[in-house]
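Let's practice the habit of predicting before peeking. Look at the sequence and jot down your guess about where helices and strands might fall. Then scroll down.
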Amino acid sequence: QVQLVESGGGLVQAGGSLRLSCAVSTRIYSISPFGWYRQAPGKQRELVASINSAGTTFYADSVKARFTISRDNIKNTVYLQMNSLKPEDTAVYYCNKLSTSTNNPLYSWGQGTMVTVSS
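Done guessing? Here is the structure:
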């Protein structure tokens, strides 16, 4: 059973920054696409950023130009640098490996890390 451990969340004022980390309990290999999701209270979980084997990244419009996804295949860790945070970024953030064919998450979800942005 692969484990995903997200960390780095916290309380930050609007305009601030946070760097989230996702430690994966198995080798993530450069061919495996990974993504960061978030779930705000009362809303569905949404994909906000992903990175594929070629290093190509995707960002939801709501976070484009503010968030940056990256990966360290040696440390088996995926990162999400979040800048210019807004109150609407408040959510629990999760990472997961993505299916190369469907882009759906493949592993069981971790506990996530809470990000709270105050206005």
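How did you do? The chain has a mean pLDDT of 94.
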